[in-house]
Amino acid sequence: MGRRVPREPRVSNPPPVAGAPVRVALVGTGAIADNVHLPALRSLGPAVRVEAAMDVDAGRLAAVAARWDIAATYEDLDLLLKEVRPDLAIICSPPAVHREQVVAVLESGAWAWCEKPPVLSLAEYDDLAAAESDGGPYAAIVFQHRFGSGARHARRLLDEGLLGRPLVAHCQTTWFRDDAYYAVPWRGRWETEGAGPAMGLGIHQIDLFLHLLGPWSHVTAFAGRLARDVRTDDVTTAAVRFQSGALATVVNSSVSPRQVSYLRIDCEAATVELDHLYGYGDDDWTYTPAPGTPPEQVEAWLPAVPGEPSSHRSQLAALLADLRSGRRPSTSGGSGRDALEFITAMYKSALTGRTVTRGSIGPGDPFYSAVNGGMELP
Questions:
Q1: 52 and 174 in one domain?
Q2: What confidence category does residue 11 fall into, taking pLDDT thresholds of 50, 70 and 90?
Q3: Which pLDDT score, from 0 to 100, does residue 15 have?
Q4: What is the per-residue pLDDT across 283-333, written as a single tens digit (0 to 9) for each?
Q5: Residue 236 falls within a domain, yes or no?
Q6: Which CATH number does the domain housing residue 276 bear?
Q7: Can you spell out the DSSP letters for 125-147?
Q8: 124, 340 in Cβ contact below 8 A?
Q9: Disulfide engineering: 373 pairs with which of 32, 158, 258, 366, CB 3.0-4.6 Å?
Q10: Looking at the structure, do residues 304 and 272 belong to the same domain, yes or no?
Q11: How many angstroms separate the CA atoms of 49 and 91, rounded?
């Protein structure tokens, strides 16, 4: 598909009046829409109303619309945007069309909430940012792991220095995806998925990792195609230095029989751990004090009340509040770009054999236009 040239974005659609539902359109009706987004939308009751759905697969579109009682269905996004004029469009289509669809949504005056992988390159992401307008519309990325109470609590403790300085960290997404998973035509290909498991699987955990630890400065990485019949990799590993001085490792895999999503941050006063698979609750977070830590200090680390798990619903509720107030969502702009920049730097390091510094990949660099820089693994 040819790249759409961004035009001057129009003024955002007026926010819903107080008490009126946010009008939502669903773009793509595959499993993530049917099994995750639609239940999240319905759980919010009258705060939202799904007005329309769009898909190029007419049979799947009709089935999902019937199951969720969605009255208007379209096979053309531009027509949907013109006729329905939604407040928010949720992008659940394959990643190769995300840029084109998100820019179209923003140009229509609607906000966009885009599934991962967000786009195929930093250049495409910057096209999204260029199509935004101050006060909205904005394009937010689905990074739901930031929105559980466990992540908010850990971020506060780290920001306030209550755990001491972060020293050593580890981010791990080791999942198992068989050949049938990769039989979907767009998976496992640089030009349609963007990259391997760091992009398609581990990006959520990487986003949370960076959200907690702050800016990184250098990354050295390796990537391999070890067991799956793919064009991309199926395993990446990396060593990272953060601007704070903390040192870390990152592992992403689609070939690991015992699946886990795991974060560990060793600080001066405590080790913080998160151990889950596809989503966490407060009980999945563990704080282990350093020997000799006073009990009253440990007490200060405990959440005051039970909170909420990470979920699309939690992020959606926050996004709706942002939309109503015209406030930039936290997973848009530079903050939404961070994980993609880090992943691109990992692949540049792995494919060139060189350490990559944060902020060094820009226009003119082949890795700015494609995560693999046009290179292939041996």
A1: no
A2: low
A3: 76
A4: 999 999 999 999 988 888 887 677 899 999 999 999 999 999 999 999 999
A5: yes
A6: 3.30.360.10
A7: HHHHHHT--TTS--EEE--GGGG
A8: no
A9: 366
A10: yes
A11: 16
- Please state the pTM of the whole predicted model: 0.95
Q: Which of 310, 327, 355 corresponds to the end of one domain?
A: 310
Task: Count CA atoms closer than 13 A to 163's CA, side-chain side.
Answer: 25
Do 170 and 132 lie in a common domain? no
Tokens representing 294 are 């006073």
- The DSSP annotation for 256-318 comes to EEEEEEEEEEEESSEEEEEEESS---GGGEEEEEPTT--HHHHHTTS-SS------HHHHHHH
Tell me if the bond preceding 303 is cis, omega within 30° of 0. no
Cα(224)–Cα(103) distance, integer angstroms = 33
User: Do 137 and 106 touch, CB atoms closer than 8 A?
Assistant: yes
User: 100-151: per-residue pLDDT in tens?
Assistant: 999 999 999 999 999 999 999 999 999 999 999 999 999 999 999 999 999 9
pLDDT in tens, 155-198: 999 999 999 999 999 999 999 999 999 999 999 999 999 999 99
Residue 29 belongs to some domain of the structure? yes
- φ/ψ of 223, rounded to 5, equals -140, 145
Distance CA(78)–CA(81), nearest Å, equals 5
Domain count of the fold of the chain: 2
Say yes or no: 200 and 220 in one domain: yes
Asked whether residue 193 is domain-assigned, the answer is: yes
Q: Which domain holds residue 167?
A: 146-310
Domain termination site, one of 264, 289, 310: 310
